[in-house]
Amino acid sequence: MSPCIKAQKAKLAPKCAAVVGVRQIEQAEDISLDTPLALMCEADRSRLCNDTGWGGGVTEQCLKEKRADLTIKCKLEVFRREVEESEAGGLLRSSTPPTLNLLLLRLSSL
Q1: Torsion, Cα of 84, 55, 73, 2 (10° steps)
Q2: In 10 A of CB 64, how many CB atoms?
């Protein structure tokens, strides 16, 4: 799901916001449904978190706990997600910095 849609969730019609919410829950439960995280972090997940179960966000939590050992592209994706989550919680009001988005785009093509 696009970070743009997630960032604008509060402005969506209630039915659309509900669909976005359901999709966010699905992505939290299964990393393979979260395309950016799966693409950027699959090698790290296999290497560092292969013994964790699926669902409930345990894979993402494992990646966060092993942040020091992540590849740079996975670190950046985990960081982008933390920024996005903090925005959803009302801690930040601006969107992900354009420079971070550009860096993530460049890294995804490596």
Answers
A1: -40
A2: 14
d(CA 85, CA 72): 20
Assigned token pair, 56: 């409930």
Q: Residue 45: helix, strand or coil by DSSP?
A: helix
Per the structure, how many domains does the chain have?
A: 1
Chain centroid offset of residue 86 CA: 12
Range of the domain at 96: 3-108
Which tens digit of pLDDT belongs to each residue from 26-61? 666 566 666 788 888 989 989 999 888 666 678 888
Report residue 75 as tokens. Answer: 């670190």
pTM confidence score: 0.58
Q: Which token pair is 22? A: 């359901």
d(CA 77, CA 107): 10
